[in-house]
Write a structure and sequence with these properties.
It is a single chain. The protein is of the alpha+beta class. The chain folds into two domains: 8-79, P-loop containing nucleotide triphosphate hydrolases (Rossmann fold, 3-Layer(aba) Sandwich), CATH 3.40.50.300; 113-231, RNA polymerase II/Efflux pump adaptor protein, barrel-sandwich hybrid domain (OB fold (Dihydrolipoamide Acetyltransferase, E2P)), CATH 2.40.50. The protein has six helices and 13 strands. The chain has helices at residues 13-25, 43-60, 71-77, 95-100, 105-110, 204-210; strands at residues 31-35, 63-67, 81-85, 88-93, 115-123, 126-129, 132-135, 147-152, 169-179, 183-190, 198-203, 217-221, 228-231. The strands form four sheets. It has a five-stranded antiparallel sheet. A four-stranded antiparallel sheet has the order 11-10-9-12.
Length: 235
Amino acid sequence: PEQSKKYPIQLSGGQQQRVALARALATAPELLLLDEPLSALDAKVRIRLRDEMRSLQQRLGVTTIMVTHDQEEALAMADRIVVMSDGAVEQVGTPEEIYRRPGTPFVADFVGHMTFLDAIVTGPGQVRVGELDLLVANAAPFAVGTSVRLAMRPEEVRTRSITAETPNRFDATIGDLSFLGSYCRAHLEPTNSRSTRIAADFSTNAMRDLGILPGQVRTVAFPPEALHVFAGGGR
């Protein structure tokens, strides 16, 4: 009510978007189309309005199609995501499917952060990156000797509860560290494959509890199911 006498130009960006959404919903549409509705807002307003829109959409049950280039926005708001590149559909799935099981290198790289490494298939469920031999869960379509691209997310690097039986464990030197608030991103250099650099995310709790510092040599590991194998040289 306190905003009712204002002209549109006197409203904030978030208020303007709320008014636009209310006008679009006033006719009780069966389908709502939103074209990057949050792109012009600052970060905190965007997150708050994103949550409001998601709550309103679920309460009203209006089928909504939203275009966005913000991956976090898509993951937080969508029931299903369609990832497109150059006008072609790359993958359709739930947010968790898109993030955890990307179907193409483009999807893996576009949604979230991913490290890509050149690898060679050395056996059933096995690849080699430089001098590093790793077990993977999805190398079945590729014959031994095939060049592939191995992809892994930084948060999948394990630093705790690693034993002699833990698969894909190796020693690595902690490279440069970037402080990103709730976590730090490090670049790891495996001691037996110095030309390989792997991004790893460590929570602030892990940084404090384990005393992680640049230059240290740490034993780390990748779960085989967290490694994604794509055809070499493909998109």
